Amino acid sequence: MALTQYKFSFGPWNISTGADPFGPPVRNEVEYGRKLKAYKELGYDAVQFHDDDIVPDGLDWPAQQKGIAAVKKILDSEGLFVEIVAPRLWEDPRTIDGAFTSNSASDRQYAIDRSRRAADIASEVNCKNYVLWLAREGTYARESKCAKTAVARIVDGWNAILEHNKDIRILGEAKPNEPVDQAYLPTVGHMIGVAYKTIDPSRSGVLIESAHSILAGLDPADDMAYALYHDKLWSVHLNDQNGLKYDQDKVFGAVDLRRAFDQVWVLEKSGYGKNGECIGLDVKAMRTTKLEESFIHLQNSRTMFLRLLDIVRGVDQKKVDELRANRQYEQLEMLILDALTGKSV
To answer: In angstroms, how far is the first alpha carbon of the chain from the final one?
Structure first.
């Protein structure tokens, strides 16, 4: 059987100025065209975009189409394709109380209109993966909204996008907290449950981010396996996370190497990537990183995935099956630890 040749992606926001909630930018902004040129240099194949990474929100459609065409020309010249497009619904003043779940009907309509326009943008760049990160779909005070109504409104918004564009499929991206106190769909299980309630479950799936599963106190590899069982894991954002705190987006494998290994194991053993799914990375450079070294965290994350992939492929599956059958889990654990520490297995 031929080995999967994985494709890799990241978003231009992964090359940042280093600003955080506690401090201003520490690096100059990297020019947009330079960011796109970095993809092939780093061994990446595809770009993740928010709608306004491609063209500013608020322009009329002819002006947006002109801007989209300019970006598409750059992508084609660089040999890149667009893996995902996502509406940035969490930064507009009209979405401070949520987008689809806002208590304001006019604000909810803005969110639906922008989401439909993002689907149009996806079509213009030949992208079928449409990601919904429901960043502000939650509450700061639980009594401020009816949670049952809120979930129904999320499904209504999801359906409006599916109805608007019959070619795209929607990937829900779950996160338990931040920027809101508590989210309505905090886990992959919640997202998949909602997917089955939409008008077209066959076009409703998930994107799983490692850190978001960890923030929910769950194991990313198990979340991935659950979504793969449902045939609904259509993209990943691999990174790492040091505990249950703010979203850190650390280099993949930087905190817990075995946890990263298990994610690669599940993806590889389950055939992820054979239908063109990308290994997406969502990682931030450390605040101390110099401007001229702004791309190293992306290079390191891809390198770590490929190193762990080599280890996964080097583990004797027959030996694993034998140890499982005999319930020799101590030996199985040491088999994995030997592989991760470079001891011949």
So the answer is: 22
